[in-house]
Design brief:
The structure is a single chain. The chain starts with a strand and ends in a 6-residue tail after the last strand. It folds into 3 domains: about 210 residues, FAD/NAD(P)-binding domain (3-Layer(bba) Sandwich), CATH 3.50.50.60; about 210 residues, Glutaredoxin (3-Layer(aba) Sandwich), CATH 3.40.30; about 60 residues, Arc Repressor Mutant, subunit A. The longest helix has about 30 residues. By secondary structure, it is of the alpha+beta class. About 0% of the residues have low confidence.
Length: about 650
């Protein structure tokens, strides 16, 4: 079987490589004489990059990339509205990726200078592609990868109705070196708060920055000639009120390589094929650039299409399966792009709390589905409570086995307002806390290091408590992950979690927006914490942890302090006698994607795995680079690696 790929860009070369690996005869036809000079750089997510990684063993050329781990949105006056960690995004120069893919082809398998003209048909099926230079390529399957202005798409679907051009984007490369915050590589966007105007930049290497300027077309007054002088003049005028960092990036730019991109999209096509002709990449679908979806989608299309063609011998079935797999994601990306464009054009109507990250999601979250109305549990805790730390495995096991039935409402109790006049049993000073933690550690398998109270003692538990309440305003699940990370930092790593830089690092690693968190800590988060303290007083909380089990808003059972897992299970089954324990074996990698960091003993308890078998599992995951580890004072802590396959 022979496949003729029309379009030798990223989508076209990727599908050709994948099909060649499955023993297809493949020819790629590209209209340009040289494809190495087009485009600058782009963002690609982990899903797309992991597909490219499959080719690494077959190439002598290195696949260059720059991991981008932070996104920041600022106003022109420097006010930071959003700061959030990116787990699985990379910046790549287009020429580097094209060079990498091009290395898999010869002059016989990739033919340049072929601009598509039309198909030759027989019995309603295409048998050959005809090109403007008069050349003809016969084949069994024809794959249209010829971009947003696809003539292949027009051949099978007719003229495309594009959306109006409301936003233009100018893209360029600057030789400006960006000072990094430690190891962080930041996708920095600076956006006007009263009009559709923004400037963004991302380091594509140690010496270069790819930048873009997005603007409402109504702001340009028609000054949009696509030549270096006009583009430079337009950028200078548009960015006159933007900060010095923007002007520095523009000042180190050779505008001979900058260009204007008139952004547009079109509705999801009813199908991506007709008979033996099929579309991928921008030929099949198009989203406005706010999502950074183009390259990742093109590569994912290629992977899905190749798998479908390998799985189903009947082409019609294969193409329908390909569409069924890809179209839901594509439709959501188109819609997300349109929403982001609406926000961009009307920034004054949208607060940062409703802001959508200008990137498609590449993560898969573990989801539970409610079987019935959940049992509500009010949980009073504190970030520095040692008993609340050692009870963590019980809470995780409850989530794994009864998570569908439970709704836990986390409340902060305010264990340590300050050391002034503090008197809780035998603990009166920081040194008493150090001694108490060491005693708890000796009796439990959840490590805790009391040296923090000697080396850098906390003077209050209020700052991390308020930060947790502020985190709940963003996302309740991420807030729980954040609280766990705060506990790890103080109990295992001896970090003072009252300090903002420590709180910020925990928040970023939990997927929270730290710019928003910092503002909420001073306002709404503080008010929520004060409300928790008032509720704690009303309910007579004097022991941490305390759990109240409610049925129809009435407290039915209470647990105070440490109790074994069986006690929690007993109460759950008393109130919900029909609750069924989830006894399914869950993949170890998924366990870590849910809980992120675990000790071997914690993993063994949560999953019910014998400790020796647990150690074998952890070593296997470690060798596969699915998890990493670090040594604490009392043992190893295992950490999930989000982008472990690259």
């Amino acid at each position: 079987m022979k496949a003729v790929v029309i379009g030798g860009g990223i989508a076209g070369m990727t599908i050709a490589i994948l099909l060649k690996r499955k023993n297809w005869d493949v020819v790629v036809c590209e209209k340009a004489i040289s494809i190495f000079t087009r485009g600058h750089a782009f963002l690609i997510n982990f899903e797309g990059l992991s597909i490219l990684a499959e080719f690494l063993n077959e190439s002598k050329i290195q696949l260059l990339k720059q991991h981008v781990n932070l996104f920041s949105l600022k106003r022109p006056d420097g006010d930071e509205k959003i700061k959030i960690q990116l787990i699985d995004w990379y910046c790549m120069k287009r020429v580097d990726l094209i060079y990498f893919l091009h290395s898999f082809f010869s002059n016989e398998t990739l033919k340049e200078g072929r601009a598509f003209s039309h198909f030759i048909y027989k019995d309603n099926k295409a048998i050959a592609a005809v090109f403007d230079n008069g050349e003809i390529e016969y084949g069994d399957v024809f794959i249209g990868a010829d971009g947003s202005n696809s003539k292949v798409r027009e051949a099978i679907h007719g003229k495309t109705t594009f959306s109006p051009i409301e936003v233009n984007e100018i893209v360029g490369i600057s030789q400006k070196k960006i000072n990094r915050e430690g190891k962080d590589v930041i996708f920095q966007k600076i956006q006007s708060e009263d009009k559709g105007l923004a400037f963004g930049y991302i380091p594509s290497s140690a010496d270069e920055v790819v930048w873009f300027m997005q603007y409402d077309v109504n702001l340009s007054n028609g000054l949009e000639e696509n030549n270096p002088e006009s583009i430079k003049a337009l950028c200078t005028e548009m960015m006159k009120d933007f900060p010095a960092e923007v002007k520095a990036v523009l000042g180190a730019t050779d505008f001979k390589n900058a260009y204007i991109w008139k952004t547009r999209d079109f509705d999801l096509l009813p199908s991506f094929h007709k008979e033996n002709i099929v579309l991928i990449g921008d030929a099949a679908h198009l989203a406005v650039p706010f999502t950074s979806a183009g390259t990742s989608n093109a590569i994912s299309d290629a992977k899905c299409l190749a798998q479908s063609m390998d799985q189903f011998l009947n082409l019609e079935t294969a193409f329908e399966h390909y569409y069924s797999q890809r179209s839901p994601k594509i439709e959501s990306h188109i819609e997300q792009g349109r929403v982001l464009k609406k926000i961009f054009l009307n920034p004054q109507k949208f607060s940062e709390r409703g802001f959508l990250l200008p990137l498609i999601s590449g993560n898969t979250k573990f989801k539970t589905f409610r079987i019935q109305e959940p049992l509500k549990i009010i949980y009073f805790t504190d970030p520095i409570c040692s008993t609340c730390w050692i009870i963590q495995p019980i809470l995780r096991k409850l989530k794994l086995e009864y998570g569908d039935y439970l709704e836990i409402d986390y409340r902060m109790g305010g264990l340590l307002p300050s050391w002034k006049d503090y008197d809780k049993g035998t603990i009166k000073t920081a040194l008493d806390a150090a001694k108490h933690w060491e005693e708890v550690n000796a009796a439990q398998y959840m490590f805790l290091d009391g040296d923090i109270w000697i080396e850098d003692p906390l003077d209050s538990s209020y700052p991390p408590s308020i930060a947790f309440k502020a985190a709940q305003l963003q996302d309740s699940d991420k807030a729980i992950t954040f609280l766990r990370r705060l506990k790890e930092l103080v109990f295992l790593e001896k970090k003072n979690i009252t300090k903002w830089e420590i709180i910020e690092s925990a928040a970023l690693s939990s997927g929270l927006d730290t710019a928003l968190l910092k503002k909420d800590i001073k306002s709404s988060g503080l008010k929520l914490f004060e409300a928790d303290l008032e509720l704690s007083k009303e309910m007579g909380i004097n022991i941490f942890p305390t759990f109240f089990f409610l049925e129809n808003a009435v407290i039915k059972k209470t647990i105070k302090g440490y109790q074994p897992y069986e006690k929690f299970e007993e109460i759950i089954l008393q109130i919900l006698p029909n609750a069924k324990k989830n006894s399914k074996l869950i993949d170890p990698e998924l366990i870590f994607s849910m809980f992120h960091n675990m000790t071997a003993e914690e993993y063994a308890f949560v999953t019910g795995t014998p400790i020796e078998a647990t150690r074998i599992i952890l070593q296997h995951l470690y060798k596969q680079r699915k998890i990493d580890k670090y040594d604490s004072k009392y043992g190893e802590v295992w950490m999930f690696l989000f982008n472990s396959s690259i």
